[in-house]
Amino acid sequence: MILEKGLLSDGIGTHVAASFVAGFVASVASNPIDVIKTRVMNMKVEPGVEPPYKGALDCAVKTVKAEGPMALYKGFIPTISRQGPFTVVLFVTLEQVRKLLKDF
Description:
It is a single chain. By secondary structure, the chain is mainly alpha-helical. It has helices at 12-42, 56-67, 76-102. Helix 1 (12-42) crosses helix 2. The longest helix has 31 residues, at 12-42. It is elongated and about 65 Å long. The mean pLDDT is 92. The chain crosses the membrane at residues 12-33. This is MITOCHONDRIAL DICARBOXYLATE CARRIER-RELATED. Pfam families: Mito_carr. Belongs to the mitochondrial carrier (TC 2.A.29) family. Solcar repeats lie at residues 10-100.
């Protein structure tokens, strides 16, 4: 899309920009799921006591009701700090290898 709209020409700068956007979108999409998963995994289940969550969906609903929708983005900075550089390195390397192999 960056190339089609003429925002940048094909090159490493374009690949870095597109990769960072991909990492950001992946972080935005995956962070709520990670927060829910962590809460369900860490809940204390004791015999004779009803657990705090019946499942992932119940956890999501209770979290949003109690803490608001932004609670699903707790830990977003560490997530983007991890996923951003990873996707940049991954996709820039992939594009460079693809260009290299295209010449063969």
